[in-house]
Design brief:
five-stranded antiparallel sheet, 36% helix, globular
């Protein structure tokens, strides 16, 4: 499932259920419990110049519900829904990626970690400031 946090301090949880229905829950009472039992795949602030408006993501959720109705959704289809919602929130509508690393990405990361500490890192300052955030979570 994906948790969208709005600038107004509200939380929205959306996911595609096994029956194919895409849900949309605003400020669900059990969100804290669900998140504590789940694994966060990725999380990022969207910022003012970030992704789509909540209404655009809601429109996508409604489109998914109409398109698939109550037909069965495979685990892969459900995961793809979460990935697409997250990417839309980040403004990555054309280049949606998985939150999981590929084997090749993991190897590159391990190689670069071996060379860590040999130079100075300056950071890029991303993630600061106000804005809404999105979190992709594996239940």
């Amino acid at each position: 499932f994906v948790v969208l946090e709005t600038e107004g301090g509200h939380a929205i949880a959306t996911e595609k259920l096994p029956d194919g229905m895409a849900t949309w829950q605003e400020d669900p009472e059990d969100l804290e419990d669900r998140c504590s039992l789940a694994k966060t795949i990725r999380s990022e602030e969207c910022g003012k110049d970030g992704g789509l408006q909540v209404r655009d993501i809601r429109s996508y959720q409604m489109q998914e519900t109409r398109a698939f109705g109550r037909g069965l959704a495979s685990p892969e289809t459900r995961e793809q829904y979460a990935q697409l919602v997250y990417c839309q929130a980040m403004g990555q509508t054309d280049d949606c990626t998985s939150g999981y690393m590929t084997k090749k990405q993991l190897q590159i990361m391990r190689r670069s970690a071996k060379g860590a500490g040999k130079g100075k890192g300056t950071g890029n300052g991303k993630g600061k400031g106000k804005g809404k955030a999105a979190r992709e979570v594996a239940a």
